[in-house]
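Subject: design request, 403 residues
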């Protein structure tokens, strides 16, 4: 392990020192005390590379990797046409993932378009092996089922305390073959960004799509036994109901779990629905309720189950802003999205199937897709997060989603 790697690890561990260091580094950068970074023709910081630009840097081992960590608020843009033109020895793309499951779903339309443009290049995936605030290794399981990737590897990484794009992925390099471009999967995220998916297309040098493509999900032709068995079980129990409501009311990113699961589930059952949930706390003794055991289901198997149930029943989702905002769009399920804290960047994550319940008006979301929650409809969870009352959630569900 190099001295540079040891220093990076030490900085990441001591957050206050890291924050101070990165802030000073960014201020130095903004003050323009030095010349802009020179980069190979296939990527550039903060603006897309010029198409067809001639290569002026040596094509050596370092040419295949990003030259330095990013500064605060900085972004990277790629141009693989430039890479292939400048260097015929490029053999493939090593796409490096350090993100959660929902984050991965937003990448799927871009990855499909990228493979369509470069079908002759093998795509290898490199996934962080540990759980942290940025990363879930379960992304690797989804990539193993993605037909556009030939191989999936795992690496021991570490999140950066301040800049998520500077995730320590140096351990991935040992498995990247010679001639593969090492390409971290970046996107931009901010108030000024129209949507994360569009940012991904722009980052990877692809034409911006019309509208916002939904996540692409890949299911096997034959369901796994646990999926088939549960499909038949739920179909028998939900027979004659108005439909099935699926709940996901916890969020790793905001460290939140909805505290009224039991009351909400029972209220929906009383309205004539069968209720399923991946969030704990529901009425397990009620025959019209099923808690999906995530220890028995892979995440893609849960989605496969819902896609099959959709063929038999009216299916609905009630979810806080987490994985199932993106998943519900990929499954084309109407979703009552409970925005439980103020996030002015939420339009980066929104799809038209989501009716957003909120106590704050978002100017970048369609007005007709927002349900403004009156003060009597929620209670404070902490200084930042609110809890919507179950009777109000049911009222909004019946009025906006199940009508």
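Subject: RE: design request

Done. Sequence follows.
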């Amino acid at each position: 392990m190099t001295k540079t790697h040891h220093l990076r690890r030490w900085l990441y561990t001591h957050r206050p020192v890291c924050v101070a260091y990165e802030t000073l580094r960014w201020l130095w950068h903004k003050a323009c005390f030095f010349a802009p970074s020179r980069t190979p023709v296939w990527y550039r910081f903060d603006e897309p590379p010029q198409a067809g630009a001639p290569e002026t840097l040596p094509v050596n081992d370092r040419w295949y990797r990003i030259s330095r960590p990013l500064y605060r608020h900085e972004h990277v843009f790629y141009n693989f046409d430039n890479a292939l033109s400048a260097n015929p020895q490029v053999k493939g793309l090593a796409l490096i993932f350090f993100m959660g499951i929902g984050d991965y779903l937003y990448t799927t339309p871009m990855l499909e378009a990228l493979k369509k443009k470069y079908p002759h290049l093998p795509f290898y995936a490199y996934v962080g092996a540990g759980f942290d605030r940025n990363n879930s290794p379960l992304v690797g399981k989804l990539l193993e089922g993605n037909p556009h990737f030939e191989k999936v590897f795992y690496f021991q990484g570490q999140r950066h305390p301040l800049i998520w794009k500077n995730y320590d992925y140096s351990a991935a390099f040992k498995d990247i073959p010679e001639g593969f471009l090492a390409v971290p999967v970046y996107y931009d995220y901010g108030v000024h960004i129209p949507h994360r998916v569009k940012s991904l297309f722009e980052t990877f040098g692809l034409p911006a799509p019309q509208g916002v493509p939904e996540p692409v999900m890949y299911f096997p032709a034959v369901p796994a036994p646990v999926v088939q068995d549960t499909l038949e079980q739920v179909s028998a129990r939900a027979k004659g109901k108005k439909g099935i409501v699926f709940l996901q009311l916890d969020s790793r990113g905001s460290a939140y779990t909805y505290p009224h699961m039991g009351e909400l589930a029972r209220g929906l059952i009383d309205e004539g629905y069968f209720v399923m949930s991946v969030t704990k706390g529901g009425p397990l003794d009620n025959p019209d309720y099923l808690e999906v055991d995530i220890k028995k289901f892979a995440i893609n198997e849960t989605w496969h189950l819902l896609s099959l149930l959709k063929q038999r029943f009216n299916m609905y989702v009630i979810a806080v802003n987490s994985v199932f905002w993106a998943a519900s769009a990929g499954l084309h399920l109407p979703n009552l999205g409970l925005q439980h804290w103020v996030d002015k960047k939420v339009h980066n994550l929104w799809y038209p199937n989501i009716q957003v319940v909120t106590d704050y008006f978002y100017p970048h979301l369609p007005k007709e897709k927002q349900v403004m929650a009156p003060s009597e409809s929620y209670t404070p969870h902490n200084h930042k997060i609110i809890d919507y009352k179950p009777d109000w959630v049911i009222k909004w569900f019946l009025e906006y989603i199940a009508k």
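The first strand starts at residue 43 and ends at 45.
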